[in-house]
Write a structure and sequence with these properties.
Helices cover 39% and strands 20% of the residues. With 251 residues, the protein is α/β, with parallel strands linked by helices.
Length: 251
Amino acid sequence: MLKSLLLITALVYFGFGLLLFVGQRGFIYFPVNALPSNLEQRVFENDGEAIKTSVINQGNKQAIIYFGGNAENVDYNAFEFQQLLNGYTVYLVKYRGYAGSTGEPTEQGIYADALHIYDEIEADYQSVSVIGRSLGSGVATYLASQRKVKKLALITPFDSVKNVAQAVFPMYPMGILLKDKHDSLSRAKDITSDTLILAAENDEVIKMTHTLSLINGFEQDVHFKEIKGANHNDISESLVYVDTLSAFFKK
């Protein structure tokens, strides 16, 4: 009976581990459908894929590239950003496989697209800044570590997807299982941009320990604000969040 129990336990362990490995990107990325929209669109061709962006506040001399969360339709930010970031032309990036962009999302592909978009627009503006929310914070930190980014705002960021997953599944070696690790912590030391980090006090997805770990990886001082009473998904509804983000990009 003991041998049978051990065998069943081993089968369950390895079976679920196999499920995690095979379906891991389904746990990280949740592509969304396109919304009916009158927003101006710009499509960037990269590696045979068409990456769509919605462009708001055209005509400004400074730009912001926005990378959203893993299940976010970035067009929902358009109205707020039109008011909040009216001094910047903002590119709302739709990852591969999201909202009409072609391909399938992977860490390598999304990072390549981020670099391509920056390189395509950089010459048109006096400066380029970046905002990354949740999963998008990993994309934003990568871009800021590779290119000259004036301002960097990270909303509910993590140190790495590997560390977040390891905390959820402590019985598995996530460093071995994961293909897409989004290791922002290893890149923080290479970032020189003026940086703001906004965290939700009651974040149920990205625990504060992961955000603080990321902050400790920077070799420069960063601006940090914890939004009291906020959760992972409703942080942007806080007036403190709105005021802090607005002030950061206006100063």
